[in-house]
Amino acid sequence: MKAPVLNPLLTGHAVRYLSSLPTVGLKLFPLLRVPERAANYYVWDPSNDLNIPDKIQRAPGSGFKRIISKLSDDTYFCKDYGVEEALDKMEVKLYENFLSADKAVSDRTTWVVAMHHEIRVRDAVAGLTQTSSPATKWDQPNSDPIGDIKAAKRVIQDATGTVPNLLTINQDVYDVLEDHPQITAKYQYTAGGILTKDQVARALGIEEIQIAGQVLNTAPEGAAAAVAQVWGDSAVLSISRAGADIKALNLGRTFNWIGAEGSGPAGIGMYSYDQEEIDSRIHRSRQFTDEKIIAQGAGYLLTNVLAA
Predict the structure, then answer these.
(1) CA angle, corner 82, sides to 76 and 85, nearest 5?
(2) What is the CATH code for 5-47+72-302?
(3) Where in the chain are the domains?
(4) With contact defined as beta carbons under 8 Å apart, do 244 and 35 qualify?
(5) CA 201, chain centre distance (Å)
(6) Rounded to two decimals, what is the model's pTM?
(7) Is the pLDDT of residue 308 over 90?
(8) How far is CA 212 from CA 17, 53, 66, 215, 273, in A?
(9) Other CB atoms closer than 10 Å to residue 144's CB: what's the count?
């Protein structure tokens, strides 16, 4: 058996495929490329954004007032996640060409890695300290999703000084909001037919809505399938913005190790090798990441927003 080697062609394909999936983990916890597999990281402190220095006028011959960030720290450790699949050389004959077969295997293994990342982010978000459940569920008469979201936004703004930019919900919750009378009333004289996602976001006062579209079989192995939404009927408000600034305000980050054995700069790596004893080529999707809350105050979890 030959040693696995990085496959640049399939890695590029996996990166594009990963970005096309209806997952939200990398939106909520944007990728942060790190050169060390394990290290301390900055935990955001609210005083950095809420407190600004006073008297910044400079007198002639004097220096400028300097900003000194207040920082605490925690530790991340990027763990090795990955799966592989054997592509039997007889199976290749079922595909148009070798590359089509390789890409099909890459898609399947990348999907599994992406789903596990999604679950890790979901579990991290479940530990948010700012949380509540709507008194009247959004699929019931006289519910107030705009008011519920506005109240949650205010909690985040009071905690961080910044308005959240992202609302993450599953498809069922989005379908309810899209048809909710509070939302449609805002467009009754200007829009006909089905509202766009941007219009729903504007009605809620949110910059962006991400729809979590993945489902999982939650039944034990061998039992009848029990398909459920990965994110359930929750709604997550967050400050989530991609960028390379390790001190930037974010609910969470996906620490992605970019070392020689790591994930690569885009968060996924494809490795290939031949296993002659089973007459197969093996493709492996690999990810070295750790998902961490950076700023508790930058997120708000609304649970059980639907009654049905």
Answers:
(1) 175
(2) 3.90.1690.10
(3) 5-47+72-302
(4) no
(5) 18
(6) 0.89
(7) no
(8) 16, 40, 42, 9, 34
(9) 15
